[in-house]
């Protein structure tokens, strides 16, 4: 409905209906020519086996003349007009309204067939003669015809795609249009007829080859017929165009079935022509059947004034929204007073009540689509509210704004998902949308999780960052986990998919570990902490602090040179983590980094992390918990975060030794720090570990520039000394 409203306001903004008649006539003429071409194309292929009546062969060859000179002259005239008018912007309107529809729509099939014939030089047809009687039949000159023909076909095909998918959907002079995806299918499908005929003609296919080509054409006709009937793709005043499309593909389907039957049974040409006798009945029945369905989506091709006076509430609503958005200069002047008078029939209080009712209905529909996981419904209802909001006549409450953008994140449209995720990330980080608002509306949060499926790492990172903020806020408020079930499964999948990206890995690991720490207390009382964890953890941390370690948002090991120095101080920006990228860094001089496990976890391997994960959950069982946390996945999360922490600690020690030695300005440059070389080797070993736990991306994106500049030369030396 929202799309039809937008189309209605743009279609009827010109003063006189006659301004649209030429555009409408051109498009309908092109559609009727496609109807005839789709109907005759299967017969043209079948004639390769049954023989063809010579007196109509020219017509059956995709409505084209056998004289290539006439065809090429027609194509040359269209191409010349486009090339000349394209140089002057003032003629752009003539190109879009007249020349493009003629060249790329009305005459698309004849011109395309001409270029294909020129490039492939089919038998049984007369060919164009150049100077000295050169034709494509001459072997020495066939390459010229082949190159020119196929190049012109490619240019014409691409031009038609651009016109049908980009220019035509934005046109405002016709009362109907088709979506770009459907236009792409039509351009491809109407190129199949000439290509199939030339293929059979050039290859000299036998009965089996002809049957194979006809079966492919049967599938195309059946698919387009089902698509056109079920979706009714025409937008706007689309009953007539939708009927033409259904009649076209129903006719093509019938003639293809007849051709397959005759070719398979070795029937004659006379039998084939007899089977075509019921075609008028097929056309009539297809028109009537589709007309009943198309009427439900039809908007009359009348001015806005008549739309407002229509008896149908849906159509009058379309007219009202169109009148709201249209520029007064584009409406017939004699209608201005009547439209204003109609709007004044209701008091402002009544109008406000009606708007509130419409807003309530729209929100209810949006909530229902989210509950039912109806992706198309979510997209349409959310876009309707968003477009209404952008007009300035609607002010969305924060919770409604959250629901609209979260629904768009689950729509599946990549561009919409990217924009909606960015908006939610900016609004959340700027506290326009509070974290408590997220926690009070869990349904939009579950819909927002779908943004993790986006192909863009930036979008996934923004979604993961917001999820981490929400989950950590829930834990701080001692609430239950806002993520569970399918959301947890999706987090696990995305963690595996983006395991090499630090920003995404860090945020989702925080989400997973925090949800694990929010398990109900009754689960924590089961069993005790394994001895292997007690021996290495008890002196420094409890189970809760271990969980906090796994859920840390960043490593805050700031590094400063000693106060007593003879060189310029490195300054507060010498932190291991760039303060502009990660929150939580400290400016105070830290003590030497302490290891929670003192290296024990690194030596003992995965079993320690599995036991640690069980200790965090307070259970000795494997499998999943009530929140959907998988113990083995949690163990991997703890292991990855501990390895990155160990790498950060070791790199911090190495950089501190480097800074201290530089500050002393020692003459013995080799003795920068006791054990410095061993520390560097340990850093490189952790960096090049087989399971590097996103350490590479961590160094590239999160480490401070000064620390990175110190560390990268050592990486370069290692690469140079590695055997090739």
TrEMBL record:
Segments spanning the bilayer are 35-57, 69-86, 98-119, 139-161, 182-204, 210-231, 243-263
Keywords for this entry?
A: Membrane, Transmembrane, Transmembrane helix
- Signal sequence, renumbered to the chain: none
Look up keyword Endoplasmic reticulum and say if it applies.
no
Protein name per UniProt: Transmembrane protein
Organism equals Achlya hypogyna (Oomycete)
